[in-house]
Specification:
Layout: H1 3-24, H2 30-55, H3 60-64, H4 70-89, H5 95-101, H6 103-116, H7 120-127, H8 141-161, H9 171-199, H10 209-233, H11 238-241, H12 254-271, H13 281-288, H14 292-303, H15 307-325, H16 333-339, H17 345-356, H18 360-369
Length: about 375
């Protein structure tokens, strides 16, 4: 195994590890993470198959898997589209929508199903031209491949154009949406160039490395983005995540910032929004009639805090009040954590200690002793 093949295998295992990380990570966008985990898992399998084909092309197991990669390839477009839509809307895809998007993968599976059930011997005879593949495949593999490339490009376009109106007033998020959609579209177009050159005889099958390297790079980029996408959605400047990106600034002036600072404080205190465990930056932005980015600017510049630090400050203050007033321990620590808006005891303990310097239990005991 050469160094390049070792690197590609590492990319595949990176995909598996990150897929597992997304599946078990507690997150506000867990539905989207699950979809992306499936995407990365299929990607990893695709890379492993390609490497196995180069190294052990004559192996019966590898030959038995021939053309099976068409099925995961048919899923890339629908999975990417549903990932972006779910990430943006934070809603689980409807059953009817899922059924619509798996139509192409099902048709691909039906097209090759007879071929998949053949013995390895017959598959090898088909590869050597001794048996016509038309007897076992309804539509030729080449035509299916071009169709899948076209559908993948269409899914990349749909991912952008069906969601861009959500960010009509937020240039940063609109740019983020465009970046990931163009990135995925570029990946699909790279397949088109590769396959066209291969069909024209300008490259041979031993140069399959080129497209697999593209897959590896895509996994690396999406893994990087995956660790930081929550930051984008919660107000972190896009240029801090993608340093090479330049975009037009759309910040608020100092006078406007002060006006909205007062509005935000009144909103938080009058409605006790911090008690809502699912409160998000986009919720505050909607109530202030501002973009997500401008709402984040108010919190960052007026309070020198991130969104979650700002919300947790209110939650901790409410927890302090409850811990002091609850002399008879009618509420345990976990009850208080949930009542003030935290989703679990651990997050509450960490935030409390960060803000107060001691744990909630120590704080309660100190106040009982005084």
């Amino acid at each position: 195994m050469r160094i390049l093949e070792i690197i590609l295998v590492c990319f595949a295992f990176q995909a598996f590890v990150y897929a597992g990380f997304l599946l078990f990570k507690k997150s506000r966008v867990r539905k989207a993470n699950t979809i992306w985990a499936i995407f990365l898992f299929l990607f990893g399998l695709n890379i492993l198959y390609n490497v196995s084909f180069w190294l052990y092309g004559d192996n019966d197991t590898v030959s038995a898997l021939n053309m099976l990669y068409y099925v995961p390839f048919s899923l890339y477009g629908p999975l990417f589209y549903m990932y972006v839509k779910t990430l943006v809307s934070e809603k689980r895809p409807k059953a009817t929508e899922i059924l619509f998007h798996i139509t192409i993968p099902v048709l691909v599976l039906l097209n090759f199903i007879r071929y998949y059930t053949l013995s390895v011997e017959i598959k090898l005879m088909i590869e050597k031209g001794m048996v016509a593949p038309n007897n076992y495949i309804f539509i030729s593999a080449d035509n299916v491949f071009y169709f899948l490339i076209a559908s993948t490009i269409l899914y990349a376009l749909a991912s952008y154009f069906t969601n861009k109106n959500r960010y009509a007033d937020d240039k940063e998020m609109k740019l983020w949406l465009k970046l990931i959609s163009v990135g995925f579209g570029f990946f699909a177009i790279s397949w088109l160039f590769y396959f066209t050159l291969f069909q024209a005889g300008l490259i041979n099958q031993s140069q399959d490395y080129s497209i697999t390297i593209m897959m590896g790079v895509f996994i690396g980029l999406t893994s990087y983005f995956g660790f930081y996408h929550s930051g984008v959605f919660n107000g972190k400047a896009l240029k801090k995540i993608f340093p090479i990106i330049k975009y037009q600034k759309s910040g608020l002036s100092k006078s406007v910032l002060n006006d909205y600072k007062v509005k935000l404080l009144n909103l938080m205190e009058s409605k006790s929004l911090y008690l809502e465990s699912e409160l998000k930056l986009t919720d505050l932005a909607s109530m202030l009639n501002l973009s997500r980015h401008n709402t984040s600017q108010i919190i960052n510049e007026c309070f020198q805090m991130s969104f979650y630090e700002f919300i947790n400050k209110y939650r901790i203050e409410e927890a302090e009040r409850l811990l002091v007033d609850d002399k008879e321990h009618e509420m345990n620590i976990t009850d208080i954590a949930y009542q003030v808006g935290f989703n679990n005891r651990i997050s509450f303990y960490n935030a409390f200690k960060k803000n107060i310097g001691i744990t909630p239990t120590e704080f309660r005991n100190q106040n009982l002793a005084s």
